[in-house]
Amino acid sequence: MTEKRERLENVALESAQRKGLNGLSFRTLADEVGIKSSSVHYYFPEKSDLTRTLIERYTQNFLASVDSIASQNWALRKKLKAFIAIFENVAVEEKLCLCGMMAAEVEQLDDGNRKLLSAFFTDTEERLVTLFTEHKDELNAELSAKVLARSLLAGLEGALLADRVVGDNHRLKAQKELFMAMLK
């Protein structure tokens, strides 16, 4: 990857996590990187091309983080804290999870990008199901691993959105407390 393309992706990712797709324009992106708008179109002919790249990159990095956490020889409590910390770090930076942000703007996505976005949530949930299944004896909950996985991911994504509107982090903390309370 060229340095210019990498810089474009970094700036676009930052912008999309803060402002969403509506707030991401090629002209603004070009201005922030210090290039002509036509140069952005050279790398990303359409906004959907840039969106695809961002979703793929974010998903790859996010799932690598989840896989790294899952591979540790830690108790479930420590693994869940590390997973939740991914979202806490995004909140500290005053951003949203890219895929959560794009889910709020799903109508703007083409079918290919909708599938990529859906895969992000499905793949993350599958990894969490595996995590909860492998540590089922550490749980103090009668819920299935699938319900726990879906609840955790949906709760964290929703908490980021609501906390952003209200201007605090109480919902994110509540999600963490809720899941820590389900552990033995």
What CATH architecture would you give? Orthogonal Bundle
Low-pLDDT regions: none
Based on DSSP secondary structure assignment, what is the total number of beta strands? 0
Number of helices: 9
Q: In words, what does this structure look like?
A:
With 184 residues, the protein is mainly alpha-helical. The chain has a single domain (52-181), classed as Tetracycline Repressor, domain 2 (Orthogonal Bundle), CATH 1.10.357. The protein has 9 helices and no strands. Helix 2 (26-33) crosses helix 3, helix 5 (76-92) packs parallel to helix 8 (145-166) and helix 8 (145-166) runs antiparallel to helix 9 (170-181). The longest helix has 25 residues, at 47-71. It is elongated, with a radius of gyration of 18 Å. The N and C termini lie far apart (47 Å).
Give me a quick take on this structure:
With 184 residues, the chain is mainly alpha-helical. It has helices spanning 3-19, 26-33, 37-43, 47-71, 76-92, 98-104, 111-134, 145-166, 170-181. It has a single domain (52-181), classed as Tetracycline Repressor, domain 2, CATH 1.10.357.10.
